[in-house]
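Subject: Interface between my chains keeps coming out wrong

I've been trying for a while to get a sensible model of this assembly. When I model each chain on its own everything looks fine, but I need the whole thing in one frame so I can look at the contacts. Pasting all components below, labels as-is. Any help appreciated, I'm running out of ideas.
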Amino acid sequence: MASMGLIFTSLAAVGPFVPEWGQMRPFVGELVLMGTIVGVLLSAFWGRRSNAVAGVVSLAGLMLAVVGLLLVRPTEGGEQFRGMLVSDHFAVLWKILLLVFTAGVVLMWFSTTRVSMHEGDGPEFFTLLLGACLGMCLMGSTSNLLMIFMAVEMASLPSYVLAGFRKTDRVGSEAALKYVLFGAATSAVMVYGLSMLYGLYGTLQIGELARRVDLGGGVPLAVAMVGILAGVGFKISAVPFHFWCPDVFEGAGVDVAAFLSVASKGAGLTLLLRILMTIGHGLGYAGSEVLTSLAVTVGVMGAITCTVGNTGAYVQMNMKRLLAYSSIAHAGYMLCILSLVVRGGSDANGVMANSAAQALLLYLAVYLFMNLGAFTVAGLVQRETGGERLEDYTGLGRRSPLLAVCMGAFMFSLVGLPPFAGFGAKVYVMWKLGANGSWWWALVAVIGVNTVFSLYYYLRVVRVMFMVESEKPEMVVSPLGGGLALVCAVMLLVMLVAFEPVLNLTGRYAKLHLPRSVPTGQVVAGGL
Amino acid sequence: MVMGVMEIGLAHYLVLGAVLLVCGLVTILTKRNAIGILIGVELVLNAANINLVAFNRYSHGVSEGGGVALAGQVFAIFVIVLAAAEAAVALSIFLNFYNNFTSVDVEKAKELRG
Amino acid sequence: MGFLNHWLLTILIFLPTSGAVLVVAAQGRAAVRWTALVTTLVTFLASLLLLVGFDWNQGGGAYGSTMQMMTSVPWIPAFHINYQVGVDGLSLPLVLLSTFICLLACIASWNIEKMTKGYMALFLFLETGILGVFLSLDFFLFYVFFELSLLPMYFLIGIWGGPRKEYAAIKFFLYTLVGSIGLLIVLIGMFLFSRNVPGLEGGTFDLLKLSDPAVQKAMGGVMGSGVIKTFFLLAMLGFLIKVPAVPFHTWLPDAHVEAPTPISMILAAILLKMGGYGIFRIAYPLFPGMAKELWWLFATIGVVSIIYGALCAMAQTDFKRLVAYSSVSHMGFVVLGAAMMTEAAVNGALFMMVAHGVTSAALFFIVGVVYERAHHREIGRFGGLATTMPVYTGYSTVMFFANLGLPGLCGFIGEVMVLLGSFAAARNGSILMNYGVGRGLVIGFAVVACFGVILTAGYMLWTMQRVFLGPEKSEYKDFPEVDAREQTVLIPLVAMAVLLGVLPYGMFFVFTNTTVAGLFKLFG
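Reply #2:
Try treating it as a single job with all components included. I did that and got this:
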């Protein structure tokens, strides 16, 4: 009884600091994730540090979080925790996608890397995975400078460790070294940029400073923007902050690489979209100087990124490295979307920015399955043959027709060919860019040319699988891994045939809460 | 009249921050030792901290309601905390790298390329 | 009948896909082959039902009013994309040709031993893509099927092809994709600009609406002539690569030489026609003004293709490569016929597509037959086959003559119609004359094209002489005569070549006349 009393007393003491339950509800995903992390750590005690138990607990937690997010009523939204976090439709769908994808990565771990992981390392692995996932969730729902920094770091720190998780692996430790040095440097530059923004406008709320941004900022503003682009561009692996990406993908385990390919990039893109749209909203999406230069920068960055990604992939002989360059290219396509925050010539209604959010969500939803599937096949091949080079895929069409056909589907979808959803997503992006008119047509052309570029190296994988004879023995594929790959491939087919529901879903969730004017003092004094 | 001693103001802090930033960036770009690079990162982070604190003190210390605003100071504290966490993670990764390569020279990290 | 009228085209498109699913499920090589054969046969028979349901009088009004058996179901309503299919005089002959050739190619595929199941499944997927292209009336749907036909073709060449199959397959894929990306940009642009048309505020992909002169007038005001010209050229690039016209033709000889015989048949007989069909269904109706303005460009490309293709064919030593270049030359007539913009020339171009479909399929099969026995295709090393294989030589002779345009066989009608139509374009009152084109220039193009006929006769007869005539060679002495299966493929083709040549109106123009007349109302 005494202890109960103590608990109640302490609860009462912290009461004023605990936010209302209604405020917490949109963040049910994060809350469940935190609980799951604790659960995974506890599972180490009674599960004899079993990897499988930790995996099952994380899977259950992720599923629970998805269910919780699905139950969040679409009307709930707004700024929470005095503007530190934002909850809106966009954030909810991003989190759902992220959590579904992470659950897919856990399943992939069960079917691929589980055999090679030292028994007892599981709890740590999943703690880190879920921790990074939590940070990425937060990246999708904040427009406060401090929270941006916190969320980016929260996503990065576990990722660094994940990259070097195989401790005795030389390339793994090298990958982690490069990742952490690159990440630390870019995030430090980002903080310097954020300090400039704070100095210029006296607030940490982007919604607030957006209204003052047109007062001018000169060099400090430019420094600030470069800083933010460096920090977020590192997460997206946008050129010129992309150097880590191929090395880390090659050095890290296949599950970690898969996780980073979608989650890290997606989180960076959603964060950047929110920043740009909040600024754009403050400026009415009009072609003001600051906004236009931002949009042009992002657009040019996207164009260069996809070109660099596609040309870099040409010479790759390692599957994970090839997929890394491919993911850089796709990050480039998605960056192009973000340039839509400025209203173009032929868009009089100012709805373009919202369709940028929709296009990003749509692309991520499709991209998720393509990459999850491709990395799953890579993991299964690695598990069976021990290799991850293209030679190890020779004759896969005979050795394991299921995997080969699925991989072919992923490759064609990554190129953007029907009948796979990658086609729909890419066309949608080109379409929206074209709808904005004027210089956005150049981006359409760049994406078109890049599609042709990319065909060659994706086809190389297909060629190796189907057209090169090999004496290698047939592969035995675990039902879970084969099933996961098949589900991803079927999803890609279904998502194109049923493109309308996908469009509707993403359209319904493509709404961002963009803060209205709040008296400055309140924000600065209360909510940082 | 004796020339008055120039009062230390915001500009001085900003210049200090900028100098630290440049020192940090140069360190990051030129050092071959991983720990040296980490030190460069810390310099950049501290440049940001000086900016944040100075801006708070000189420009944004008063909220519109007339109260005390501490956003910059709080931000700086968070940066310090996270820098410590980052250093912990980075150093453990360096240690692991050292275990594999018996060096923390980043020039040794060239098995992954292409 | 109502049900059939409504759903026959859809059934036609997806019959091969369902067959492919059965093929994947089938056990054993024989079962796979028979499933595929039955599927293609059923598809062919179903396509014959089109003739029953086809309205022979065709309404006869403007372009689009001759469209029949239309089905339109919303697919992606948010962007007004419909699953919209229909058939008219432009597409009907090509649909019949496709199902006919696919059936024969399936019989020709009987001796594929390597991964038969995969081969047959891809083959049937390919047929779905082909029929989808010819039947869809929605730009987006058309594009999806246009791309969809690429994937199986890539595998069919790349896995079952000859020594340089991978190079040929990827070259084919890259070339076509370059063209289709241009087409994709046109597709998106047309949709976006169509939003400015009163009544089409949401934008449209409907090819019939987009080719409506009133709609085009409204869109033209917004687009400006520069954009229209860019779009037209991009669309034409996509189709000319597919046709293929010189200078975009270099993928074709490689693809043909490496592809297995049945796939060469389909490639030459049907896939090239997608390009020609695209010109008549999309590029010209959507941009009639530009088609007039740039007629000289396509007339040049057409004539150059005719002459250059024929000259290249003459220089070949590889039998299959020769037939491939002959395809380039013959498809040049299609481009020329389109550029000249007279009803006779366009009708001739359409006829040419079907006639070439029959002859090229036959010729590639003929090459395949001899390659199977001799294991080489060097024309110089053949000779005297007429003595060892008289029946085979008989079929080949008919098809050679059909290809070089002997009167009474199918090739003749197409060539003559295009050439007559080209000369007719120099007559007062033709579209080009009304547009103010120099008469001498038009006649010049027509005259040069006539030389193509002579060149064709030259290389075909020369090949004939080197392969079939001359003294019997000892190494070919014990070649078996064409067997029953091979005859099953050859006899229908020979019959079609004769029928089309003797009864061009009843077999062909009765379908196309009204539609072509409607098409010309667009050109004004």
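Reply #3:
Confirming on my end. Chain B has one domain: 13-102.
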